[in-house]
Amino acid sequence: MKQFLRNMLCLQLERKVEQLRVKHKFTVVAVAGSVGKTSTKLAVARLLEASGKSVRYQEGNYNDRVSVPLVFFGEAMPSLFNIFAWLGVLGRMSRKVKQDYGYDVVVVELGTDGPGQMADFAYIQPDITVLSAISPEHMLQFGTIDAVASEELEVSSYSWQLLVNVADVAAKYLDGISYKSYGVGQPADYQAEVIGSHGVVGQQLLIKSADSEDFKVSTDYGGRQGATIVLAAVAVAKMLSIDDKVIVSAVADLKPFAGRLQILEGINDSTIIDDTYNSSPLATKAALDLLYATDAKQKIAILGDMNELGDSSVKEHRELGAYCRADELDYVITIGTKSRDDLAPAAEAAGCRVKSFTNPTEAGKFVRAIIAPGALILAKGSQNGVFAEEAVKQLLKHPEDSAKLVRQSEEWLKKKAGLRGVA
Description:
Blueprint: H1 2-23, E1 27-32, H2 37-50, E2 55-56, H3 68-73, H4 83-98, E3 105-109, E4 128-131, H5 139-142, H6 145-152, E5 162-165, E6 180-184, E7 190-197, E8 203-209, E9 212-219, H7 223-239, H8 244-252, E10 262-266, E11 270-275, H9 281-292, E12 299-304, H10 313-323, E13 331-335, H11 337-349, E14 354-357, H12 360-370, E15 376-380, H13 389-393, H14 410-420
Parallel strand pairs: 1-3, 1-4, 2-3, 4-5, 5-6, 6-7, 11-15, 12-13, 12-15, 13-14
Antiparallel strand pairs: 7-8, 8-9, 10-11
Helix pairs in contact: 1-4, 2-7, 2-8, 9-10, 10-11
């Protein structure tokens, strides 16, 4: 019955979006992919805003069949069983269809938890869909990376233009598909080369494309991961014919978001790379690369469990442990049982000094006691059951910066206290 009601509701919501698309002229940019969707979505939306476009988007992760239609109308999602609230939502949607829309661009995030779900978004007919990566995700449901690729690339069947990060999508999956490419440090329709680095606090990129002269942008996003996010936003702006000079100015205004390569001041003149929003093998290795590439008197990696990897979980955690470099890391701190059992032994075998915790607050307290002046600390972990942001909270120079961390609402704090004994 629950699934039936959900499906009926979705059909009504999707019909409202279709009506909106017919009655009003605006561009839809969608973002899909195994990792990096939310960061890419926000960078695209904020860059287009800074370029003078009127943009509608949602800052969280409204990315499933129920929540995506709400983004088009600026609606919050009620409880699924709150019938009166949903009647109100549908009524307001109907009225908004008839009114002036007022937005040039809508940017949405398309997510999937299992096979067949990407097809549900076909009604949107995005003008541009960005595919950020194909890597292990929800592996209990998908089973193989080939199945993940098949699901994510369903967007190619209903998107007018597809923009693919060819650095993180294997070429074999793109055979027979029409797309434009973007990539950092490799041939693509839209390329970026790092020409100047400011460590974790930013870098300068040279943007190359066939449709304009090369130009430089300065960004507060660090590392290859940050460069890729910025390049995706730049590529979308160029596909929408925004002037290069406007793009340069807009990129300079972009800032990393909470839990996504956010740079925070730590105690004892330390610097924290707060990448605690979520975790996956691809993204964690990219974050470690940023740590390795930055000079610091002491480097500490706080690595939490990577969830939803299914049968590949042991292998991926062991590979990540082996990726930890003893010549670059003074400590590897793990949070969670998967990291304790699989990542930690592999990191120790690689020569790293490792300390494991199941409670993120205790992990943070340990790190607080060992921080040397000028240390550089990376914190990363999956969303649920890990809560690496609570370790970061113990390390902040300014306690009020805890408001900048992810999952700090009253609801989340109650959930974390109940599950992990978070203080």
